[in-house]
Amino acid sequence: MKNSITLLLILISFAIKAQEKDKFLPKGNEEFAEKKYADAEANYRISQSKFKKKAISSYNLGTTIYKENQFSESKYQFAKAIQDAKTKPEKHKAFHNLGNVLMKEKEYQGAVEAYKNALRNNPNDEETRYNYALAKKMLKDNPPPEKPKENKKDQEKDKKEEKKDQEKDNKDQDKNKDKKDGKDNQDKDKGKGNNPEQPKPSGASKQRIENLLDAVNNEEKKVQEKVNAQKALANPKKPEKDW
Question: Are 29 and 240 in contact (CB under 8 A)?
Fold first, then answer.
């Protein structure tokens, strides 16, 4: 009987935790819409600390600090959103905005890879496709410093990978030529935090993006300290409706 009671208490505690709702995310969304970016940032950080695997908190936080011109940290937040994303639309938006940040920093090769990954998760998004084409043009016009000469085997491997990527890009473009943006673009513009403005015509590699993903874990301690400081200042009111 005693064991049964203990099990029941554990189940009740799990049920209560599952029913806990994030009241900070919608509050941050309201403040973002009002361009109160500092307040929105505080609430998104609290949401992120309480719901650690919630990709939308990191995505919205990244978008907010992007608006505050904190490009370096916004990359880590978008990378964390990519890491925690459960669906293709979530991954698409996070990769898209990561590409925007890299374009701002003139890291065109990294931007090409980010937009390419965004298109893999949503081939129908014309904004991403435009940015992808722009990033490739900027990379062509501004090639990165030459690397030490690779051996013939590595050069052939790189050429094969480049050809494969180009064939896939052409195939995706032909496949989606007559499709409308519709559903996925509507999902992107819902009140979960708007995308940053698209880059204007004004590197890093795949390894650069992988390094950003790895660096997310190293940023956790710093983010947590900032969250604790923000908690002392933030006293958010209860939103009209839960997320």
Answer: no
Residues in the chain, overall count: 243
Phi, psi of 221 (to 5 degrees): -60, -45
What pLDDT digit, counting tens, does each position of 100-126 carry? Answer: 999 999 999 999 999 999 999 999 999
Q: How far apart are CA 239 and CA 85, in angstroms?
A: 25
For the residues of 6-73, what is the DSSP string, one character each? HHHHHHHHHHHHHH---SHHHHHHHHHHTT-HHHHHHHHHHHHHHSTT-HHHHHHHHHHHHHTT-HHH
Could you give the CA distance from residue 8 to residue 10 in angstroms, rounded to a whole number? 5
Kindly provide the residue ranges of all beta strands, DSSP E only, lying in the chain, ordered along the sequence: none
Q: What gap in Å lies between CA 66 and CA 88, rounded to an integer?
A: 22
CB of 208 closer than 8 Å to CB of 109: yes
Q: Could you give phi then psi for residue 231, rounded to 5 degrees?
A: -60, -35
Which amino acid, 30?
E
Q: Distance between CA 111 and CA 45 in Å, rounded?
A: 26
pLDDT at 146: 75
Tokens found for residue 142:
């501004």
Helices 55-67 and 71-84 pack at an angle, to 10 degrees, of: 160
Contact 15, 227 (CB under 8 A): no
Work out the average pLDDT over 2-8: 47
* Alpha carbons 55 and 91: distance in angstroms, whole number: 9
Backbone angles phi, psi at 35, to 5 degrees: 65, 25
